[in-house]
Amino acid sequence: MEDRKIAVKEHLPFMLIFPAVLLYFEIIFHIATVGWRIDSSLFYVTLFSISFGAIGYLLTSIFKSEKTNYIITIVIMSLTALVFLIFYFVYKQFKIVYDLNTVFGGAGGVLGDFASEMFKLIFNFDGIFKIVLYCLPIVLFAIFGRKEKFFRPRRANKFYRMAAAGVIALFYLLGVLFVSLGSSSALYDKEYEFNSATGRFGLMTGLRLDSQNMLFGNSQGGFETEPTDTPVGDDKPDEPIVYKDNVMDLDFTKPCSSAIKNLNDYVSTLTPSKQNEYTGLFKGKNLIMISAEAFSAEVIDPVLTPTLYRLANKGINFTDYYQPASAGTTGGEYQNVFGMLPMAGGKSFKNTANHLNYLTMGSQLDRLGYYGRAFHNNSYTYYQRNETHINLGYSHGFMGYGNGMEQYVKNLWPQSDLEMFEGTLPTYIDSAPFNVYYMSVSGHSGYSRVGNSMTAKNWDRVAHLDYSERVKGYLAANLEFEDAMAYLVKTLEEKGIADDTVICISTDHFPYGLDTNGTLGNMPYLSELYGYNVTNIFQRDHSDLILWCGCLEDEDPIVVDEPTSSLDILPTLSNLFGTEFDSRLMPGRDVFSDAEALVFNTGYGWKTSLGTYNAGKFTPVSEDTVIPEGYVENMKTVVRNKIRFCSGVLETDYYRYLFG
């Protein structure tokens, strides 16, 4: 018995190494991505770290040879540190902790697509400092692991293996128990989202949940029963005109899989929105739809960007618009084009390459005989757009740099939006009605005069502004997009077709490249640009939607002051162009319909006319706002169902079943 006590005394320090190192890794990551915030998440992280750490102990105490165990310990520690560093540097670039699908999936993942940016992020003081912090315990163990008897990686006997197994089970169950009793229980299962989960439970638990969902399906379950009447805003008066429903004759009785049956059952219970006085306002007109790289409402200025100011104020004015940050540029594009949240992260757009994309504006207008084309002025294979963008419904396919765009655009970084429009506009302007889509690139980070050709080109136009160098660099880069829009509008007017052409502009994401180490509440450059301290995701993701047509310029402004988002673009355009669509198949809404306003994101946060639900807390619009009984829980159900619908459509190629 005395010998065992001595053995335990000598063995215990090595047993504690992995739990301690893993907790150390998690705390560094938490501070770097969430900030210096001490709350219940630290308790959850500690419990799960001990459980995961005990697994590490078992893996490193298998062999009789201490040398072999020593090597295995260093290898596992190093690989674990590498995982943390990869996800940290991805966060540093995008200000979101991306899931496995985004980091390693679609188009090679961000690791492949942003290799040069990652190089810059790593080889600076902060990057090297983080590497040193994560390497520190590895170096210490390498030095003392074989010299000090208390840290030597001895082989575990049956007693120690059983003890470690008990620790794994006990602390895992304790973690799950305390999570289920706390306010984060929904985030662990039915409202799981990787970025939020890592902030709450730690990176290792986030990776476990993400892997579990990828291998065995999403744990969120099926659709929930929604209340028959869920008020989201003030009651609207009865319409003096009886409008038809925006609905199609869909057959939900065809043979199908259980996953599609769940979608059918859900869609068939929804109430479609109605047509309205704006239905068909743009019928037969041309459409130029643009996803503008890192664009923001703050770019719009009557002096600095007069054309963008004109388009934003002489068209349809959106005063409370949001672009939920999800999966970088490809995620924002997905929202704009498909009207869905990218629930497979960075692989979402990629997964549509072989789908029937029946309801994109490209497909809808193509069925009406429009000339269609999609354009991008960066590499045509980036994010595998050469596979995805030829399947968006545009009759004449997709052109990027490498399959045609190089004849118009110089090989700079980033490339010029003005050159793209100057080169491509003549190719379709005489082919009315036309329907074209652009993904711009001139506003891309970083915003230095050395590393950004657009910032350098337009610097003299912003040098006098009262901003920091980085914010001025951002504005200078976006002036290339302003020049592109000036050329576009001028040419449309010269051709006499401005009144017959609709321009729709939305960003892909907030300007995450402004702050290299930003966390919510610590984004100085973004806050400088916005004019207020950015402390939550709705403040961060606010933007502006530009929806303009020359025919609106002499009319009284059309103002949409309810919350709207990029998911509302597709149903709104569908209604304005008078196409045949089913509003039940679009989780967003036609902003002119009787559907109530609802903005939501992949983290299950949402905003309505009555208030905002974020990070588990609902905040009414004002102290005087009357919140109906059960309202918040009802809206949480509505949002969960919409998110499951986004996921289900992507996973099942649902529109092929309905329309194929």
Number of helices: 25
- By DSSP, the count of extended strands is 15
Question: By helix and strand content, what is the structural category?
Answer: alpha/beta
Strand content: 5-15%
The average pLDDT value, as a whole number, equals 90
Physical arrangement of strands within the biggest beta sheet: 5-4-6-1-7-9
**CATH superfamily heading of the largest domain:** Alkaline Phosphatase, subunit A
Termini Cα gap? 74 Å
CATH class of the largest domain: Alpha Beta
CATH fold description of the largest domain:
Alkaline Phosphatase, subunit A
- Rg over C-alpha atoms, rounded to the nearest angstrom: 27 Å
Shape: globular
Let me know the largest β-sheet: 6 strands, mixed
Give the % helix.
40-55%
Count up the domains.
Answer: 2
Question: Can you tell me about this structure?
Answer:
This protein has 2 domains: 215 residues, no CATH class; 311 residues, Alkaline Phosphatase, subunit A (3-Layer(aba) Sandwich), CATH 3.40.720.10. The protein contains 25 helices and 15 strands. The protein has a 6-stranded mixed beta sheet, sandwiched between helices. Strands 12-13-14-15 form a 4-stranded antiparallel beta sheet, covered by helices on one side. It has 660 residues and is an alpha/beta fold. It is globular. The mean pLDDT is 90.
